[in-house]
Design goal:
There is one protein chain. By secondary structure, the chain is of the alpha/beta class. The chain folds into two domains: 131 residues, no CATH class; 215 residues, Spore Coat Polysaccharide Biosynthesis Protein SpsA, Chain A, CATH 3.90.550.10. 55% of the residues lie in helices and 12% in strands. The protein has 15 helices and eight strands. It has an eight-stranded mixed beta sheet, sandwiched between helices. Strand 1, helix 2 and strand 2 form a beta-alpha-beta unit. The longest helix has 33 residues. The N and C termini lie far apart (49 Å).
């Protein structure tokens, strides 16, 4: 094998090996610590529910929030009906929430959150503000889990964000595993490293003092990632409340799922372009592991893309080694990369709770990888846009004439 070809295979393997090694490390560290002791409720919370045309599900979310194990006098549930054209506000009020209606040309979840946070801070009721999406159900211990971290000194906390309907189809089971990998394995591992566990957009908790220090000015397709970066640069890390859950239904249909993933991945690509190199450089200058970890989290490509590249590299390195008559350095690097990915995925499956069905569905992973690769190729790289929500499964099943899939440049409704 020509020396130039051998060197090219090694050089191309290095970034993939580093990315897979990072995920492998997080998989090894992804173990739950003992849950913190919950003291008597003392802190006051505003639970903000940003909602854009969510009449079909907002009442369920409000009822779930009302059922939390926390004194009613210490919490307020505030639904922000943002540029709604349906009965979101009426349904939320009937379910028992306070409702604030917003009409503005500045559309998007980021603007809705900025509006809600400013209202809450001016009211002065809450010690902390929680964000829960309007299609979610929460565990009863959500506010107690947040309170325990805040009392211990945390300023920002993220609950586990998972899939509510994993049994709906093979696609939702794979989504449950994917969420487990991204929201649980990575967050648990990063919590063990004492770096930022990351904001996930749903199930977030911010102390009021933090929001005054670092106002929420994040309007991109992935406003949670953008604001998390700003917090990290300001010296704050996101703590992970792993025992508390916020669960949302994932769409079953391929078309709706494709639209949803295009917005998510397009937004992350935009954040990588804007913040990847500056985070890495600033982290090196400050010797700040938190910033370096956040840069690494951005630089690691989506799992489908990483798996496709790692698998292709292994095939090419294997053929090259066969021609050379011995195992090359490139073969070892590509083989280890694939092994690390397998360990990472298996750890995510174990934590996903999907059981044997989920393991069997992993056999569909090559098909899913191909589907995801087409999504990534078509992902929008726009950083802004109007708030266009993903159709919910119940609406799709009813065939609502109001439903149309959002354009690819749509923004952060998750």
């Amino acid at each position: 094998m020509p020396a130039a070809m051998a060197m090219l295979l090694v050089l191309s393997a290095i970034p993939v090996f580093l990315a897979c090694s990072y995920l492998f490390l997080l998989a090894l560290l992804a173990r739950r610590r003992p849950e913190p002791a919950y003291g008597p409720p003392r802190l006051r919370f505003d639970i903000v529910v940003p909602a854009h045309d969510e009449e079909s599900g907002v009442a369920m979310t409000v009822r779930s929030l009302l059922a939390m194990d926390y004194p009613p006098a210490l919490r307020r549930i505030i639904v922000v009906a943002d540029n709604c054209r349906d009965r979101t506000a009426q349904m939320a009020r009937a379910a028992g929430a306070l409702v604030v209606e917003r009409q503005s040309e500045r559309r998007g979840k980021g603007y809705a959150l900025e509006f809600a946070f400013e209202r809450c801070l001016s009211d002065g009721f809450a010690d902390a503000i929680v964000v829960v999406d309007a299609d979610s159900a929460v565990s009863a211990n959500l506010l107690r889990a947040f309170s325990a971290r805040l009392e211990a000194g945390a300023t920002v906390v993220q609950a586990h964000y998972g899939v509510r309907n994993p049994a709906a189809s093979w696609r939702t089971r794979l989504m449950a595993i994917a969420f487990s990998l991204f929201h649980k394995v990575r967050s648990l591992g990063r919590e063990r490293l004492r770096v930022s566990a990351g904001l996930r957009g749903n199930g977030m908790c911010f102390s009021s003092s933090l929001l005054r220090e670092v106002p929420h000015r994040a309007y991109s397709l992935v406003e949670d990632v953008e604001y998390g970066i700003r917090l990290a640069l300001a010296g704050h890390r996101v703590h992970f409340a792993y025992e508390a859950d916020v669960l949302s239904d994932m769409v079953v249909s391929e078309q709706a799922a494709r639209s949803q993933r295009q917005r998510w991945e397009g937004g992350r690509f935009a954040m990588l372009r804007q913040y990847g190199a500056p985070l890495l450089w600033t982290g090196l200058l400050r010797s700040d592991l938190r910033l370096l970890d956040m840069a690494m989290d951005l630089f690691v490509p989506p799992l489908a893309m990483l798996a496709a590249v790692a698998g292709s590299g292994l095939v090419v390195a294997g053929l090259s080694s066969a021609r050379a008559g011995h195992a090359t350095l490139a073969l070892y690097l590509w083989a280890l990369s694939n092994l690390f990915l397998v360990v990472y995925v298996v750890r995510g499956w174990r934590l996903s709770g999907t059981g044997a069905r989920g393991l069997a569905d992993l056999l569909c992973a090559p098909v899913y990888v191909l589907w995801k690769a087409t999504v990534l190729l078509r992902s929008s790289l726009h950083g802004r846009g109007g708030w266009v929500r993903t159709p919910r499964e119940a609406e799709i099943a009813k065939g609502s004439p109001r439903l149309r899939l959002p354009p690819r440049e749509a923004d952060p409704s998750k």
